[in-house]
């Protein structure tokens, strides 16, 4: 298939009159929604337009995209190029700093205290804690496990999807999963949470989208606030928002249950103090 030379907006406008009435509904919805489409699924489009899967696929193919995923990538490219144009060489340092600061501020402002306290209680009442994340969220999962350890909490970060599913299959009501997914739609994480939930395990979900499939599996759901472009996944802003919630959970736990952090930190420090080279 030849590379499409125009962006998705121009492509739709050029082909608009060749579309059927149902396909035009899809076109109108995509043109009005823009970048929001990146985080939507075929099911979301169906609900919003009232058309079927076949109509959406035919629409994509009439625009010379192989399917809905290709269309989403085309939309993501436009969003990415728009962001790149705004990042002039003389302003990108301030822009990066502003994004990180805003990630923390917006996360704190939107935090649901009731859900946060529920999460802290789940940590307290669990015998075993597993932290699930894949891709960029896997990096956050490993970091959170390390932070837990410094507070005397032994938690296992699992970033391999097969290992997640295997562990989930053996979980009980005494186990807790902390699941990271900015989109809330990561299939591997969702599948593992579904298995664990069926076995009675409790789940804390940390995600951008409170109504996402993974969020619906959560006993406590905490919202991150950084929308990542499809072409720019794994950004530091997204991790900062996730890590901010990590700190809220861990700090809240140590304060609520009067954990002697200093003594525990000293024990942990003594275990690695001789690891540095003279």
TrEMBL record:
Superkingdom of source: Bacteria
Keyword DNA-binding: yes
GO annotation terms (biological process): carbohydrate derivative metabolic process
Gene3D superfamilies: Glucose-6-phosphate isomerase like protein, domain 1, Winged helix-like DNA-binding domain superfamily/Winged helix DNA-binding domain
Record GO terms (molecular function): carbohydrate derivative binding; DNA binding; DNA-binding transcription factor activity
InterPro entries: Homeodomain-like_sf (IPR009057), HTH_RpiR (IPR000281), RpiR-like (IPR047640), RpiR-like_SIS (IPR035472), SIS_dom (IPR001347), SIS_dom_sf (IPR046348), WH-like_DNA-bd_sf (IPR036388)
Designated name of the protein: RpiR family phosphosugar-binding transcriptional regulator
Organism: Pediococcus cellicola
UniProt lineage: Bacteria, Bacillati, Bacillota, Bacilli, Lactobacillales
């Amino acid at each position: 298939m030849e590379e499409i030379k125009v962006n998705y907006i121009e492509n739709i406008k050029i082909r608009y009159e060749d579309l059927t009435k149902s396909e035009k509904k899809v076109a109108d919805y995509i043109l009005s929604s823009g970048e929001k489409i990146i985080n939507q699924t075929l099911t979301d489009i169906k609900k919003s337009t009232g058309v079927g899967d076949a109509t959406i696929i035919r629409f994509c193919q009439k625009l010379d995209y192989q399917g809905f995923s290709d269309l989403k990538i085309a939309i993501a490219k436009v969003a990415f190029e728009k962001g790149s144009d705004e990042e002039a060489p003389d302003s990108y340092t301030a822009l990066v700093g502003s994004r990180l600061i805003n990630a923390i501020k917006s996360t704190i402002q939107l935090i649901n205290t009731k859900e946060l306290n529920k999460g802290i209680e789940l940590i307290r009442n669990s015998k075993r804690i597993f932290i699930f994340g894949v891709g960029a969220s896997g990096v956050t999962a490993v970091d959170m496990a390390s932070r837990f350890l410094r507070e005397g909490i032994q938690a296992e970060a699992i970033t391999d999807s097969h290992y997640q599913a295997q562990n989930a299959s053996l979980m009980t009501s005494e186990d807790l999963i902390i699941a990271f997914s900015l989109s809330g739609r990561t299939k591997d994480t969702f599948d593992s949470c579904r298995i664990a939930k069926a076995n009675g395990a409790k789940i804390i979900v940390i995600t951008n989208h409170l109504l996402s499939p993974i969020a619906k599996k959560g006993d406590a759901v905490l919202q991150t606030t950084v929308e990542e472009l499809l072409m720019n996944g794994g950004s530091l802003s997204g991790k900062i928002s996730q890590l901010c919630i990590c700190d809220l959970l861990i700090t809240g736990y140590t304060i609520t249950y009067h954990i002697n952090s200093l003594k525990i930190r000293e024990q942990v420090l003594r275990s690695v103090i001789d690891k540095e080279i003279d």
